[in-house]
Description:
Strand content: under 5%
Shape: flat
Structural class: mainly alpha
Number of strands: 0
Order of helices and strands: HHH
Number of helices: 3
Radius of gyration: 12 Å
Distance between the termini: 8 Å
Largest sheet: none
Amino acid sequence: MPGASSRPAVSELAARWHFTDGSHFTRTFKQRYGETPTQYARRTRAGRAE
C-alpha cells in the first residue's frame, strides 16, 4: 500500500489541473468541498486501516 510520501503535493495537483498556483487550487478546492486538500487527505486517510 502506498505511503503518504507517494501522494502528490498540492502544487503538483494544481499544475495537473492547470491552476496558476497551489494557493489558487487550495482556495477553489475549499470553496467547492468545504475543506482544504490537506484536510481531505487527512480525513480520508484516518478512516483506513494500515
